[in-house]
Amino acid sequence: MPLPMVHLAVASMMLPDLQDPRVPAFLVGNIAPDAIHMRRGWTTDDKRRVHLFLSSTDVPDGAELAARDLLTDWRNHGVAIGPLHIGYAAHVLTDLLWRARVWFPLRKKLPAEIGYQEGRVLYYRETDEIDRQIFETALWRDQVWRLLAEAQPADIPDMVSAGEIALWRQRTLGWFDHLAPATEPPLYLTTAGVLSFAEDAAAQVLAWLTEWDWWPPPSEVRHTK
Q1: Cβ–Cβ contacts within 10 Å for residue 150, how many?
Q2: Cα–Cα dist 160/129, whole Å
Q3: Sequence-separated (6 or more) residues with CB below 8 Å from residue 165
Q4: DSSP β-bridge partners for residue 156
């Protein structure tokens, strides 16, 4: 599904005032579900579960309600919802939209002779390059990188731990130091198209969270023990 720069682009469009004290936690929440990759022995089922099955399977209409129900379940179990949790929900909702609006259309464009594994290789080659281009050109990159580094990760109940999030944050912050430019330009994705997706996704995720009374996030970050 979308790589970190897309999630951070969506986050920066949802909370565009980067001086807002909620931003660091919201940013780290927006990359938190992928911290499952830092868990020793993680499985595909683990990844699907922490993404609420919204990014790794075919999903029906109304699947976004899984994110609403997760936030409600946390609240019902005494979790004080903060920007970190809202960011987590924003990530899985963005994945859902990406799957419908980017991944499925791209898959349909691929020649029939390209198998699943070859298609994955092509997909990640293109998304890596688009992420690299956004990293190189985004005006908000330096400030977001600083805020992301300053954020204090915390456990996401029953999903990923603070330690896993910290490791994934560290990997994200250093990823582009070693990512070389693609030897060929992407054939199916464009930076402009992906940024247009991010803008639309930010608007749709905001609409969902507002409808469910989860937006805006509370001003203070509080965590249960």
Answers
A1: 11
A2: 27
A3: 28, 31, 32, 35, 153, 154, 156
A4: 160
pTM for this one? 0.94
- Per-residue DSSP letter, 37: G
The residue type of 221 is: V
Measured distance CA(164)–CA(35) in Å, rounded: 5
- Amino acid at the residue 82: G
H helix runs in the chain, sequence order: 4-14, 23-31, 44-50, 65-76, 83-98, 104-109, 116-137, 141-150, 162-175, 191-211
Cα angle 173-106-103, degrees, rounded to a multiple of 5: 55
Q: What is the pLDDT along the chain (225 residues), one digit of tens a residue?
A: 799 999 999 999 999 999 999 999 999 999 999 999 999 999 999 999 999 998 766 777 899 999 999 999 999 999 999 999 999 999 999 999 999 999 989 988 998 888 888 988 999 999 999 999 999 999 999 999 999 999 999 999 999 999 999 999 999 999 999 999 999 899 999 999 999 999 999 999 999 999 999 999 987 544 433
**Token reading at 89:** 């929900």
Alpha carbons 101 and 150: distance in angstroms, whole number: 33
Say if CB 35 and CB 164 are below 8 A apart: yes
Non-local (6+) Cβ contacts of 3 within 8 A are: 127, 128, 130, 131
- Residue that is written with structure tokens 């600083």 in the block: 146
Give the pair of three-digit tokens for residue 202.
């930010």
Which token pair is 152?
């204090």
